[in-house]
Amino acid sequence: MSRKGNCLDNSIMENFFGLLKSEMFYGEEFASIEEFIKELESYIDYYNHRRIKGKLKGLSPVNYRKQSLKVA
Fold it and tell me: How far apart are CA 69 and CA 72, in angstroms?
């Protein structure tokens, strides 16, 4: 853990929640909690399995980890 006032501990989650809010949540109205949970699960699946990242050599996070494990 870093010292008080150092945001590096939270930066990964703050980045994720910022993307979540801007890509999934803002401007949307959900009819029920169940619908929101379904959309949230769908977004998390997209975020981990289908989202292509340039930093990860054009792969999704899951595919990048699988490729890294094969090399090691």
Answer: 5
